[in-house]
């Protein structure tokens, strides 16, 4: 399906996915770590409230740290995957929905990186990857 979704007054609607969500009503990793460190600082390590609490807190701290590292590595892998996919488009015929709602076609001559997403250079136009609707091998 390559037709844009018509909005009010038949203006095509375009949507961009957010890469992250910043909610003010939830604690972030830094807030959690600050609370955990403060609790550990004011607790007597030789006499914790329970025998397993200190080890549990240390394990939780380590888990949060490792999950943060995994999230960072996943973001790097996603960026690399997008770059490899973008580079593979050079020489392919593409179709996309232009700003005015029309479907345009052309052959990708190069790909530019920078900003949130790569852009395909088709003729004298730069087309964001999110606008591409079809990719094919040129005849």
TrEMBL record:
**What UniProt keywords are attached to this protein's entry?**
Bacterial flagellum biogenesis, Cell projection, Cilium, Flagellum
One BP annotation, GO: bacterial-type flagellum organization
Q: Which family does it belong to?
A: Belongs to the FlgD family.
Q: What is this protein called?
A: Flagellar basal-body rod modification protein FlgD
